[in-house]
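Protocol step 4 of 6.
Sequence for Phenylalanine--tRNA ligase beta subunit (Rosistilla ulvae) entered exactly as in the expression construct, tag removed. Do not edit the line below.
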Amino acid sequence: MLVSWNWLRRYVDLPMTEPELSERLSMTGLNHEGTEVVDGETVIDLEVTSNRGDCLGHIGVAREISVLYELPLCKPQPEPAEGSGKASDSIRVTNVFSDACPRYTARVIRGVKVGPSPDWLAEALRAVGIGSVNNVVDITNFVLMECGQPLHAFDLAKLAGDEIVVRPARPEEEIEAIDHKTYTLDPEMCVIADRDRAVAVAGVMGGASTEVTESTTDLLIESAVFTPLSVRRTARKLKLHSPSSFRFERRVDPQGVDWASRRCCELILEIAGGTLEQGVVDTEPELPTPTNVCLRLAQVERVLGVKVPDDEIRKILTALGCDEQTADVDKIHTCPPSWRHDLTREIDLIEEIARIYGYEKIPDDSPIPVAASQKRPFDEAVSKIRDVLVGSGISEAMTPSVVPADVDELVSPWTDRQPLTTETALLKGAKTLRRSILPSLLDSRHANQAASGADAELFEVAHIYVPPAEVDGLPEEQYCVAGVSGQDFYQVKGIVETLLRRLGIAAVPDVRQVEVHGLDKAWSIELTIAGELIGYVGQLCPDVQKSLKLEKATTCFELNLDAMLAAAHLVPQFRSVSPFPSVSRDLNLVVDEAIRWVDLAASVRAAVGPVLADLKYVETYRDPAKDGEGKKRILMSIDLQSPDSTLTNAQADAIRGDVVDRCNADHGAVLLG
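Step 5 output, structure tokens:
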């Protein structure tokens, strides 16, 4: 942001030197990038952070100086003289895209004389790197650099139908911008149109078909608010950036829209002549309600480590434009000014107090209370989970909590209730609070495949939002870990079992085949421990895989962290290693098809007792000719090891016999001879 020294003097006295001012501004967040002299005028280059869009104009910088040096701010109060005609009779404005344009205003000036700008105007713009075009265009640029509110002037005679329509662009609609390049638009982009065609890319650049030339006599002055997301998306997609888009991407002051319009009209009447028609056509005259922020005075000292007098705190907040609503002995309720979108929390106000009070006033040796921190069980569990999954070749992802509705519908293991939605899209087309992490990861897997052809193995630890059963209830925020992988079902199930063991979950999870929306019923299971649902493992159903255009079969899992923590033992349990050798025995049992391995394994563990060192599943084999229909063979291996002595063959065979008897009693298992 180039700031002219002489231009600043229009709004605030500058008794300090340029180096002193640059140093002070740098200490308060407006970093000094450099100073140059343009035609004998000092110009300062300031780095303005993305949260300080209010400083993208000379008045905003002057306001900062007035607060820092306790100087009065002299902001012009434009009151342009109006003629007899009404603006509403000359132009109609229809806004059918309020998500991208919350407010649009239009004023009409007739009988202007377009020509060269006066020297003072051309020199002011040249100092900040803007060339002179003509008096009308230069005035819109001057007001832009003055207050940070972008404006646009249309040649009214070139607007078809005497109307302005704020709407989405039509598919493949084209526009020639004032840079005389043609751009192809899409329906996600907001345009300003007349009856027949788009005449401007909203918030980015005007169109050549309605630009102001020397033959122009009647003007429509646009001053509007376009949402940052819409402008940023459009500018990036078109690769078309401008001073206007730069400011809209960082938010403009909604209450400054009308001021900028009046200021522009006043200067046009003064320099280019003409008659301003009465009134303004405004699509949203109701301004947004300001946010109320509570500041606890004790928090200022606690955070900064130095006592700032209460009167000084109030003085700073008032100077910044905050409107004190109520004040108690220990707290202040205040409304930040409309131009400070970044002041929404108590900590934001504390930062402002420190910034204006002066970081240099905080002693270097100011005592900062330090307390030893202890890792919470939750954090320790998440750390162990990350270790297991990363060690298994799965990369951690971070995806948004809001997703498009069609993405959320892909997989929903936890609930079939309708998802919650936000009033406005927080991301591109995303308004749905996700009911599962899996849809986000599947979408990311698809994006990775489309971009590089790679099959991304992804996991994420994050919140999901289970909709309430009651209409007025609150959603259940559930912490989960989920993953998607190209490995087969048994490999992913093994990773999940390893993860559970790493958390010290001694109980063997009960496994049951279930039907889950989005997963293949033949390859989907739920895991429970002591009747508590832990999570799901399953293979993506072919329809979902096809809709996402995934080339390889994908196996998914999603686990409830809270449920796992309840069963976990994060403190490692030590068990002495037996000095005696182990003995192995294999068993090949014939059981009914319905018998599950997990149930059979539980019977084996109960029969063997403490001398069981390991139990391994080997394979399942079916031979209807020998065993009969509805039967299967399960081959397993057991390792036996006593902590007190070496087990003899006779003892091992006796234990093996106990296992066979227990499995026969519990499941009708027969040992294959």
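Step 6, annotate. Residues 377-567 form a domain with the BirA Bifunctional Protein; domain 2 fold (CATH 3.30.930.10).
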